[in-house]
Specification:
It is a single chain. The chain is an all-alpha fold and about 190 residues long. The chain is about 75% helix and about 0% strand. Helix 5 runs antiparallel to helix 9 and helix 8 packs antiparallel against helix 9.
C-alpha cells in the first residue's frame, strides 16, 4: 500500500497543476487543451490530477481564482504606489499597457474563458463575474477618490482597452484609453 500523500506534497502538486493548466489554457484555450497535455506539463498522473480536481471545470475555476488573486494584487500594487488620486486612476492604464506588451499576451483570461465556456458552465460564469466585479469595484474606488464623475465610463475604457489590445496586438491601446479617462475624471 502506498504511503499517504502529505499536505505539503498535495500543496506542491496543486500549485504545479494550476501553473501548468493556467499556462496551457491561456496560451491555447480551455477546450483546445486536453487533460493529457495538462498531465504532461504538470508532471502528474491523471489519477493524481483527478484526486485534486474532480473535473476539468473544477480545475478551470481554481485556475481562474488563482490568476485573479495574482492579477488584482499586481494591479493594485502598481496603482496604489501613486499618492495622487487622479494619477492612480491614470496609472491603471499604464499598468494595462505594460501587461499588453508582455510576451504571450492573449487578452483577458476571464473573457476568454467566458467565450469558451460561459454559456455552458455556471461555475465558470460565476468566476468570471466575480473577477469582473472585483476589477470594477477597484476602479470605482480609485475613481471615487479622485472625482465625483461616474466610474462606469472608466471601467468601460479599461475593459475596451483589454479587448482591443487582445484583438489588435497593440499595447498602445491603453494610452488612448488613458487619455480618454483623463478627460472623464477632469
Amino acid at each position: 500500500m502506498p504511503a499517504p500523500i502529505s499536505e505539503e506534497q498535495t500543496s506542491r502538486d496543486r500549485e504545479a497543476l494550476l501553473a501548468a493548466a493556467e499556462a496551457l489554457f491561456y496560451e491555447r484555450g480551455v477546450q483546445a487543451v486536453g487533460m493529457d497535455a495538462v498531465r504532461s506539463a504538470a508532471g502528474l498522473s491523471l489519477k493524481r490530477i483527478y484526486a485534486l480536481f474532480a473535473t476539468k471545470e473544477d480545475l478551470v475555476v481554481a485556475m481562474l481564482r488563482r490568476r485573479d488573486r495574482r492579477w488584482l494584487a499586481s494591479l493594485s500594487e502598481y496603482v496604489e504606489r501613486h499618492e495622487d488620486p487622479h494619477e492612480r486612476v491614470l496609472s491603471l492604464f499604464d499598468w494595462l499597457e505594460r501587461w499588453f506588451a508582455e510576451p504571450g499576451f492573449r487578452g483577458c483570461a476571464w473573457i476568454n474563458a467566458h467565450g469558451e465556456l460561459g454559456s455552458s458552465s455556471p461555475a465558470v460564469l460565476a468566476e468570471v463575474r466575480s473577477h469582473k466585479k472585483a476589477f470594477h469595484d477597484r476602479i470605482t474606488a480609485w475613481v471615487g477618490a479622485a472625482t465625483d464623475a461616474p466610474a462606469e465610463p472608466v471601467c468601460l475604457l479599461a475593459e475596451g482597452a483589454i479587448v482591443t489590445a487582445s484583438v489588435t496586438g497593440d499595447p498602445r491601446t491603453a494610452r488612448a484609453a488613458r487619455t480618454a479617462a483623463g478627460t472623464l475624471i477632469g
